[in-house]
Amino acid sequence: CPCCSVAQVPVAEGKSVQQTVEIMTRKLELLGAEKQGTFCVDCETYHTAASTISSQGQTGKLMYVMHNSEYPLSCFALFENGPCLIADANFDTLMVKLKGFFQNAKANKIESRGTRYQYCDFLVKVGTVTMGPSARGISVEVEYCPCVIANDCWNLLLEFMQSFMGSHTPGIPSVFGAKHDSIYSPADTMVQYMELFNKIRKQQQVPVAGIR
Question: Which residues, if any, are the signal sequence (predicted)?
Fold first, then answer.
């Protein structure tokens, strides 16, 4: 799997999410990037069933079941600060059977959907992050196709991202630091999306916490 960086881009001042996405995609097109279809990454949250916690005295855990249109035959199950399981697409069916252990927090479903752009050896995906009916943020995934060792390509990724993200160019992803010289995998991309989705969820909760 080619190395990639997944980051959140703030909404431009005085603009909507959609207008900010259009500004970013216009910059890409001016650079010479070409549209290459669409993409979607989704994430459903499951929490440990109350009956399991009370009977076994365990603390509740969250599990995230994710899909990525780049890997249509796979399903990813991630624990926060834990392992990432890569299963085949019918893993969702298994989760229905495990509802005695894991409950689906349906209101927490979140996804990023948008357009893929190819520019030389880079693949860029600019997505609108939605929860329910409303747009909550913007994600940008930048992939450097020829490279599978994270530390070998960060400087190239950084330079390219600066060309269209400017001051919003992200720092090096935490998964890069953990990989050192090992091969980058699809799970590393999904961990980055999980972190981004959780960050956006928490941003939505801040005003509520302020009221309390």
Answer: none
Q: Are residues 97 and 117 in the same domain?
A: no
Report helix, strand or coil for 146.
coil
Q: Domain range for residue 17?
A: 4-40+110-204
pLDDT of residue 103: 84
Task: State the chain's mean pLDDT as an integer.
Answer: 88
| pLDDT at 207 exceeding the cut of 60 | no
Q: How many C-beta atoms lie closer than 10 Å to residue 164's C-beta?
A: 24
Residue that wins the pLDDT comparison between 189 and 57: 189
Residues 69 and 150 in one domain: no
Angle between the N-to-C axes of helices 17-31 and 150-165, in degrees from 0 to 180, rounded to the nearest 10: 110
Instruction: For residue 35, tell me if it sits in a domain.
Output: yes
